[in-house]
């Protein structure tokens, strides 16, 4: 792995193509995401038990909250992308989003009911919605287009280190302090503050549009964002594909609750299921990112959803044991490694540079909104049909949609970046 160096304008120098692999900006953003994910995933790992066991809410309520946790950020993702493109300040828009999420961690210490918990989690996810597209736009602007999948893979790998450490940290705290949920919330706050501090101090204030104009020595004002720049037919096909698949992507917590009910896991071991998924994600993020650069990002994106389908089936089958659980966790990790960063890379190819953050935000908005619907709907389906039958229905629907999504992605360029 080779690291590039920042120039005096806060941008990234352009080393020879043979040496340029992963930018220092990508590494720095990966560290920020790692610390933030330790914060957020330590909380997410105990939310199913905290909501249904400690607070005593129903699975329908959990389905709504899980959908909120997954999808509320959709309402501000476009705003975050637009602000980053319009003001040409993606770092500080991302900084604002990370800061909002850190403030929400304080509220977790006082949330004791459905209403307050919904409010705090909504604030946290709003912060995530604001920061995600500007951060991913920084990754694209700092990366060689031919190695874009690798760059996102490295970032997601570091991000997933945090996603694995967070649940493990929650497990250790609950192991020694069985009712230590407040302790988890305090530790989560500390990691969130550290991540915000590193973003503000270490990550350079890269301004893609201004630096592009300076390099071209163009006396005219650099092109600005316009909404019509998001009308590329390839982007519309990608959004439709992501929406169809997102409608059938249920929250991991439901899958883990099914595995726990069949495998007799103790409540204190529940967070380790998140660790297993994130370890698989961690190990596969870079290999699948590199594969997407060579084999086609659209193809790898579809392969990821085939892995998700296999995870649904393995969770629904009336078979228990550690091997089935491990298989399911590996399949979930494969799904995230093959779709998370790769969707952002695909969206960046389908929008011009002036609208890059907004194009990424549009794809992420569609996914977040549809997953909100999916989680809420699956909670009702579980309540009506039972856990295994609900999982089989979701698997059957996903099996029907995957071929349709594959056909839609044929119209999306997989390797040639937007110019």
Shape: globular
The CATH class, by name, is Mainly Alpha
Distance between the termini: 26 Å
Discrete helix count:
16
Q: Biggest sheet, open or closed, and with what strands and sense? A: none
Percent in helix: over 70%
CATH topology: Growth Hormone, Chain: A
Return Rg in Å. 21 Å
Strand content: under 5%
Number of domains: 1
E-strand count: 0
The averaged pLDDT comes out at 81
CATH H level: which superfamily? MFS general substrate transporter like domains
CATH architecture: Up-down Bundle
List the topology elements.
Blueprint: H1 24-44, H2 47-54, H3 59-71, H4 74-87, H5 90-108, H6 114-141, H7 148-176, H8 181-202, H9 208-216, H10 233-246, H11 252-263, H12 271-295, H13 297-316, H14 322-349, H15 356-385, H16 387-409
Helix pairs in contact: 1-7, 1-8, 3-6, 3-15, 4-5, 4-6, 4-15, 5-6, 5-8, 6-15, 7-8, 7-12, 7-14, 10-15, 10-16, 12-13, 12-14, 13-14, 13-16, 14-15, 15-16
Concise account of the structure shown:
It contains 16 helices and no strands.
Notable features of this structure?
mainly alpha; globular; Growth Hormone, Chain: A; disordered N terminus; 0% strand
How would you explain this protein's 3D organization?
The protein has about 425 residues and is mostly helical. The chain has a single domain, classed as MFS general substrate transporter like domains (Growth Hormone, Chain: A, Up-down Bundle). The protein is about 75% helix and about 0% strand. It has helices spanning about 25-45, 45-55, 60-70, 75-85, 90-110, 115-140, 150-175, 180-200, 210-215, 235-245, 250-265, 270-295, 295-315, 320-350, 355-385, 385-410. Helix 12 crosses helix 14 (about 320-350).
């Amino acid at each position: 792995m080779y690291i590039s160096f920042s120039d005096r304008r806060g941008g990234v120098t352009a080393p020879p193509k043979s040496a340029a692999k992963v930018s220092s900006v990508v590494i720095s953003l990966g560290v920020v995401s790692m610390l933030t994910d330790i914060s957020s995933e330590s909380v997410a790992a105990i939310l199913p038990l905290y909501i249904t066991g400690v607070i005593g809410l129903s699975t329908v309520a959990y389905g709504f909250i899980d959908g909120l946790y997954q999808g509320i950020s959709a309402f501000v993702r476009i705003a975050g992308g637009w602000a980053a493109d319009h003001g040409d300040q993606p770092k500080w828009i991302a900084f604002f989003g990370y800061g909002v999420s850190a403030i929400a961690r304080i509220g977790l210490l006082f949330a004791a009911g459905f209403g307050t918990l919904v409010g705090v989690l909504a604030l946290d996810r709003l912060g995530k919605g604001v920061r995600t597209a500007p951060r991913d736009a920084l990754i694209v602007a700092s990366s060689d287009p031919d190695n874009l999948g690798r760059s996102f893979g490295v970032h997601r790998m570091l991000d997933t280190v945090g996603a694995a450490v967070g649940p493990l940290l929650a497990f250790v705290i609950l192991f020694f302090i069985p009712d230590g949920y407040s302790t988890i919330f305090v530790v989560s706050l500390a990691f969130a503050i550290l991540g915000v501090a590193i973003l503000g101090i270490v990550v350079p204030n890269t301004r893609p549009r201004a630096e592009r104009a300076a390099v071209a020595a163009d006396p005219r004002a650099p092109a600005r964002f316009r909404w019509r720049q998001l009308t590329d037919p390839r982007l519309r096909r990608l959004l439709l594909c992501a929406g169809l698949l997102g409608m059938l992507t249920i929250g991991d917590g439901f899958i883990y609750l099914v595995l726990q009910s069949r495998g007799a896991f103790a409540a204190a071991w529940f967070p380790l299921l998140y660790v297993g998924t994130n370890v698989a994600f961690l190990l596969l993020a870079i290999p699948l990112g590199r594969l997407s650069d060579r084999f086609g990002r659209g193809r790898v994106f579809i392969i990821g959803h085939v892995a998700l389908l296999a995870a649904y089936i393995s969770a629904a089958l009336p078979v228990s044991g550690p091997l089935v659980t491990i298989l399911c966790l590996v399949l979930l990790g494969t799904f995230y490694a093959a779709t998370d960063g790769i969707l952002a890379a695909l969206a960046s190819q389908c929008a011009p540079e002036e609208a890059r953050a907004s194009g990424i935000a549009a794809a992420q908005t569609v996914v977040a909104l549809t997953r909100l619907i999916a989680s809420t709907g699956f909670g009702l389906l579980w309540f009506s049909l039972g856990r295994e039958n609900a999982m089989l229905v979701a698997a059957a629907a996903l099996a029907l949609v995957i071929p349709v999504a594959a056909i839609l992605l044929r119209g999306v360029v997989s390797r040639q970046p937007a110019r």
